[in-house]
Amino acid sequence: MPSLRRSASLALCLIASSLTTAVWSADPVTDAVQKAYAPYRAALFKTNSGQAAESAEALKQAQQAWGQVTQLVKSQPTVPYANDALMAKTLTGVDGYYATAAQQVAAGKLSEAHATLESVRDLLSELRRQNQVIVYSDHMNAYHAQMEHLLDEGPKWLKAADGSPKLAAQAGVLGYLSERLSSEAPAAVQASPEFKELLGAVTRSVAALNAAVASGDKAQIEKAIGQVKAPYSKLFIKFG
User: Fold this and answer.
1) Rounded Cα gap, residues 209 and 167, in angstroms
2) Rounded Cα distance, 204 and 24, in Å
3) Nearest to 147 by CA among 214, 231, 211
4) pLDDT tens digit string along 68-100?
5) Residue 113 belongs to domain spanning
6) 126 and 29 share one domain
7) CA 47, CA 98: separation in Å to the nearest integer?
8) SS3 annotation, 102-115
9) How many whole angstroms separate alpha carbon 17 and alpha carbon 159?
10) Which residue from 82, 81, 175 is spatially nearest to 124, judged by alpha carbons?
11) Which end of the chain is flanked by fewer CB atoms within 10 Å, N or C?
């Protein structure tokens, strides 16, 4: 999981990006990476669900998809990555993480494999950041990072005397980022009834969190925190 500093930095970066024109997927390499991201998300989800056989198959598909990205980059380097040494490092880095995760899955260490796969997301995010490329996955990642921060720290804040302002601030951040999940989605995605349904569930979970925090009822806040992750996970696996 990203560190708090990294999470906050990513969120602030995306907030700042709202003031400028975002660079959307418009080159063959970025498109290929995003296409390969779908089986990656499946592998991430399966390893987190304790499904060994399904995890192995999802990883195999993710590796195959990444192999196609590697071949494309070697045959057709394109702007904005043509002169970027980080691209080569990313290609080998993702290969390495997939290989390690596959070994961990084979050994029945699914939680370790899931943690390993999280690093793939960080590599791809950093590659795009350094090349000033923004795709919808970056907005999903920003929400995920802040959501995980809430899940890690929220229960502690509930018990702390000075925790209420922190909970309120974090709920507000998630509210902003959930709006970005809607406004920054590509037109084709926004037109999808399934997307609208899944995003609606995320939006409602965040609204419930903000309402609970405003009420000051610790039982309601704890319940609302516990209901934030599931809607996001469903949206991520399909559209993240």
Assistant:
1) 9
2) 28
3) 231
4) 999 999 887 677 887 788 898 999 999 999 999
5) 25-130
6) yes
7) 12
8) HHHHHCCCHHHHHH
9) 35
10) 81
11) N
- CATH code at 64? 1.20.120.660
- Residue 177 sits at the vertex; the CA angle it makes with 172 and 180, to the nearest 5 degrees, is 135
What is the rounded CA–CA span in Å between residue 139 and residue 181? 6
Does residue 117 lie in a domain region?
yes
Span 106-157, pLDDT tens digits: 999 999 999 999 999 999 999 999 888 889 999 999 999 999 999 999 999 9
What's the sign of the alpha-carbon dihedral 210, 214, 218, 220? Answer: negative
**80 and 114 fall within a common domain:** yes
Domain boundary at 107, 130, 153, which?
130
Please state the separation of Cα 42 from the chain's center in Å: 12
Last residue of a domain, one of 130, 147, 166: 130
